[in-house]
Amino acid sequence: MAAVLEAPLATSLFSSKPHNTNFPPKFHTFPSKPTLLTLRNTHPHSCVANASPPQDPDPASDPQPDPNRDRRRIVRVAWEKILRWSRSWRSKANTDILQRTNKVVVLGGGSFGTAMAAHVANRKAELEVNMLVRDPQVCLSINENHCNCKYFPDHRLPENVVATTDAKSALLGADYCLHAVPVQFSASFLESVAEYVDPGLPFISLSKGLELNTLRMMAQIIPQALRNPRQPFVALSGPSFALELMDNLPTAMVVASKDKKLANTVQQLLSSSHLRISTSSDVTGVEIAGALKNVLAIAAGIVEGMNLGNNSMAALVSQGCSEIRWLATKMGAKPTTITGLSGTGDIMLTCFVNLSRNRTVGVRLGSGEKLENILSSMSQVAEGVSTAGAVIALAQKYNVKMPVLTAVARIIDNELTPKKAVFELMSLPQVEEV
């Protein structure tokens, strides 16, 4: 044992002098002199110089970190932050807008106007919702059977939804106006009822498109037709089918206004457990995206009707999205609007889902039907048909090349067949994406 203690390495190992820093730090805590316990832990067939360092604890007693557990914790914390932010936002929101609202008028008895009338009426049982319609049969159906016999015969409307053909009684005392008249007929209709419109009545436009001859959007049409440049205006847009709104399925939309306070007010009026409303100040971006997506949906339908496959569908819609962004930004819109709900969101819904009227027109065109036969068989307006020519006029005005949307306009004008349009689009120069 003396020989063991006199070994040179043993002396240095248990010395109180500074150790070589290459040793692990835990060796520094050893006592400066050997103890009986130290000797007992020495291998019987070796000297202290060859002794192994102390072993790590049993892995079973010190479990390793669980990556899945850590990931779940991170996700849980992130979700809890979102919920706290949501609760904080709701607590600060002005929730008395609905309480102060007594009457809402809806101009137009189409599918989307009906769906929004039902949605608003369900927000408050005491709220009076008046629908101004031109079809006496629809008016009678709403008032007596609580359904729109033309568009939603199987959906019961709230009892506080009433219909009338009298503009004066519909608009009298209204707090908000939902405008759901097709774009091409809006100016003449509004001019006919302008005398009954209060100059401070906020107009919430549900109509999407461009006026064919003037290239005006609803933000210009409404105040000019009412002869009131200060008429409060909000555009409502986003991926939304009227049928799904009637079925109370989750939906998200955007209200856009230059007046931030008005946008927030309308947001509070319309938001519900199944309708999420965001706000924006980019009226141009929201309206242009809402108009041009209808034209792109016709193109997508043509690809489907011609059975050209998924590759061409993806390429065409991507190109169309770029064209919409090019024109919109030239007109002063924000690129983020075009990639948001009222842009990409609405484009995806309209281009890829069979409920889209504009897509249906395209499918039938691609299958070889004539446009006049398609339109005569439809009970609702496909805004993209009339908007296509206006889009190309805007593109020329702002010097933007829009090959896909231009091809749609040429097909609608019967100057190009779908097959020829596809051939020419595929022959375009291969350029760098912008």
UniProtKB/TrEMBL annotation:
Gene label: Vigan.03G139900
User: Which GO molecular function terms does the record list?
Assistant: glycerol-3-phosphate dehydrogenase (NAD+) activity; NAD binding
What is one Gene Ontology biological process annotated in the Swiss-Prot or TrEMBL record? glycerol-3-phosphate catabolic process
* Family the UniProt entry places it in: Belongs to the NAD-dependent glycerol-3-phosphate dehydrogenase family.
Q: List the source organism.
A: Vigna angularis var. angularis
Q: Where is the composition biased (Pro residues)?
A: 54-66
Give the record's pathway.
Phospholipid metabolism; Membrane lipid metabolism; glycerophospholipid metabolism; Lipid metabolism
Query: Which residues are in the Glycerol-3-phosphate dehydrogenase NAD-dependent C-terminal domain?
Result: 282-422
Tell me which HAMAP family the record gives.
Answer: NAD_Glyc3P_dehydrog
* Glycoprotein listed as a keyword: no
Keyword entries, A-Z: Chloroplast, Lipid biosynthesis, Lipid metabolism, NAD, Oxidoreductase, Phospholipid biosynthesis, Phospholipid metabolism, Plastid, Transit peptide
Tell me the superkingdom of the source. Answer: Eukaryota
> Tell me, what's a Pfam family for it?
NAD_Gly3P_dh_C
Task: List localization entries.
Answer: Plastid, Chloroplast
Q: What is this protein called?
A: Glycerol-3-phosphate dehydrogenase [NAD(+)]
Region ranges (Disordered):
44-72
Q: State a GO cellular component annotated for this protein.
A: cytosol
Q: What is its EC number?
A: 1.1.1.8
Start and end residues of each Glycerol-3-phosphate dehydrogenase NAD-dependent N-terminal domain? 103-262
Q: Which reaction does it catalyse?
A: sn-glycerol 3-phosphate + NAD(+) = dihydroxyacetone phosphate + NADH + H(+)
Q: What class of enzyme is it?
A: oxidoreductase
